[in-house]
Write a structure and sequence with these properties.
367 residues, alpha+beta, Creatine Amidinohydrolase, Chain A, domain 1, Creatine Amidinohydrolase, 6-stranded mixed sheet, 10 helices, 18 strands
């Protein structure tokens, strides 16, 4: 990451902090520290305010900090000084009276220790302020997400072409990760889901020793991660046996829900309204009770980010957001269908970043 990009992000955060009435924010979430500085290590906090920008770390990361974010001051604590002690000293030296902390990631124990070490200080909970900035991706982040999608799709195409009936779900998941790494991924975006037949009714199924040939279809939910930490998230269903009329029926309902929702994505559209469009398609087909999760979520440095395409999130979409659209129907004892794409919100509407076909006929492979 360039120092200019990180500096722009910190300026955005400082503008948001003015609304909280705090003098500074203590950022403890390592993803947020990295997002705002370019630092890729861990066990380090960022103290940011209008008059202070300092990373509090330890000697393991001295050289790394100099290389990755030389423009930011660093406080390097020794092994005899606790992190809280170092934070307390740095905050006092900066003359801070009202300190914000990340309420969504700070544990009660951590808060309690900070409160004890800084009794003269007012601690102010600040909810998801960095995460809300992260919702809108810049050109670099969009480019990295494109790369993550590309690597995931290439890996899947190789697996799809080489699939055999004797492979287990675990075999396929491992091979998929290996293949994506071969195309340049740093690893998987999350543990890959490979679910054969009835097991596909489990939205978060874990791969087992069940073989591909034990059923007529298999669900894949996978993604790649780039070396800069950006991720993709895709789901497809492959038909490996004789096409089933029941499978095709629910497949077509899910595909229609996916398409209708994507067609409605544009700046200003509310997340809950996009969710409702897909949910109505599935409900009208008689499967409403079989679609229990939200339609999608933001994706970026972590696999589930703000915003959420769900009945409870009224966030308005903005150009630069990247969200998944993943309607599903899950029938216990039979199996499930989920079809997921990664979608970029653009100024004029949206762009589907994934390009793997959704037509049912394209899902059929001969083993």
């Amino acid at each position: 990451m360039t120092s200019e990009r990180a500096a722009n992000r910190r300026q955005k955060l400082l503008r948001q902090l003015k609304k909280t009435g705090t003098d500074a924010l203590l950022i403890t979430n390592p993803i947020n520290v990295s997002y705002l500085t370019g630092f890729t290590g861990d066990d380090s906090f960022l103290l940011l305010g209008s008059d202070v920008a300092v990373i509090i770390s330890d000697s393991r990361f001295s050289t790394q900090l100099e290389e990755e974010c030389p423009e930011i001051d660093a406080v390097i604590r020794t092994s005899s000084v606790s992190m809280n002690g170092s934070v307390s000293r740095t905050v006092k030296q900066a003359g801070i009276n009202r300190l914000g902390f990340e309420s969504q990631t700070t544990s009660f124990q951590q808060w309690e220790r900070l409160d004890q070490d800084m009794k003269s200080l007012e601690l102010v909970p600040v909810d998801s302020v960095v995460e809300k900035i992260r919702q809108v991706k810049d050109k670099f982040e969009i480019g990295e997400t494109r790369r993550a999608v590309h690597m995931a799709q290439r890996g899947f195409e190789v697996i799809k072409a080489s699939l055999t009936s004797g492979q287990t779900e675990i075999d396929v998941a491992n091979e998929l990760e290996h293949t994506m790494r071969g195309f340049g991924a740093s690893g998987v975006a999350f543990p890959s889901i490979v679910a054969v037949g009835p097991r596909s009714a489990l939205p978060h199924a874990h791969p087992t020793r069940k073989t591909i040939g034990e059923s007529d279809f298999v669900l894949f939910d996978w993604g790649a991660e780039t070396f800069s930490g950006y991720r993709s998230d895709i789901t497809r269903v492959i038909t490996t046996g004789k096409p089933s009329a029941r499978l095709k029926k629910i497949y077509e309902v899910v595909r229609l829900a996916n398409r209708r929702a994507i067609e409605a994505i544009r700046p200003g559209a509310r997340c809950c309204d996009i969710d409702k469009i897909a949910r109505d398609v599935i409900s009208q087909a008689g499967y409403g009770k079989n679609f229990g999760h939200g339609l999608g979520h933001g994706v970026g440095r972590v696999i589930h980010e703000h915003p959420r395409l769900s009945p409870t999130d009224s966030t308005e979409l903005r150009a630069g957001m990247i969200v998944t659209v993943e309607p599903g129907i899950y029938l216990p004892g039979f199996g499930g269908v989920r079809l997921e794409d990664d979608v970029l919100v653009t100024r004029g509407g949206c762009e589907v970043l994934t390009s793997l076909p959704l037509d049912y006929e394209e899902s059929i492979v001969a083993l």
